[in-house]
Amino acid sequence: MNSKVTNRIALSLIVLCAVIMVSTLAALLGYILVKGLTNISWHFLTSESSAFMAGGGIKDQLWNSFYVLIITMILTIPIGTSGGIYLAEYARPGKLTSFIRSCVEVLASLPSIVVGMFGMLIFVNYFGFKFSVLSGALALTVFNLPVIVRVTEDGFRALPLHQKEGGLALGLTHWHTIKTILLPEAFPSILTGIILSAGRVFGESAALLFTAGMSTPNLDFTNWNPASPNSPLNLFRSAETLSVHIWAVNTSGIIPDIQAVANGSSAVLVICVLMFNLLARAVGKMINQKLSGR
Fold first, then answer.
1. For residue 230, how many other CB atoms are within 10 A of its CB?
2. Coil, strand or helix: which one is 281?
3. Locate the ABC transmembrane type-1 domain: which residues (predicted)?
């Protein structure tokens, strides 16, 4: 068999795999959107869910999803970026560095259900946070931390070595070089990774089943006092998110319009995750254009 035939066979297999992957994704997204878009309305997005009657919405669950996500990213970004900078710039090759990287790899490979059980044992029971926004955010922080560490480390390692050497040659300290030269250059890739990880966290359900809970109080959006039990900003209330709501409706729901609520909620969740991915691409492209035009 000559090289041209081998090349054609390899190219055909690659194209076939790409077509199968794209077709599967398009079919899955198309099915969810076709089934769910007809059930989405302003009333559906802005009304409270119902446990018994038809016509309920997802207002509280949608708010809980974004609120848990925001708290998670507030906790994750400083720790994850600091860890990535340490591994990329300060960690010396050795047993300690290898151990840290092994820990990051293990955390990244943990199933989300295991993270949820860990969160329930530590945050819900041991620390006494109960089923709450804070417990869910802390569990998702454990789940999301290795992603941010990897993204930050890869962003720094992708930079040309002469940028770091140029800063040090000018007499700048290592930290000042990182802060003023390396971090701004690595920021586009780090930000893109953070937005993508936010979409991953937004759609998470297994880790939240055991930490944030499967119920939510009727939130009072006129009361923003964090100490109030029904306040949207209360960190210690239970918080059923959109993905958990979909699971609960399909497994134990008794409302007459189960299928409509599940389909509509799934479509909203998919649209939000797609928006995170599109936003990551748009932001990364915009920042790269600005940097290349400097």
1. 16
2. helix
3. 62-280
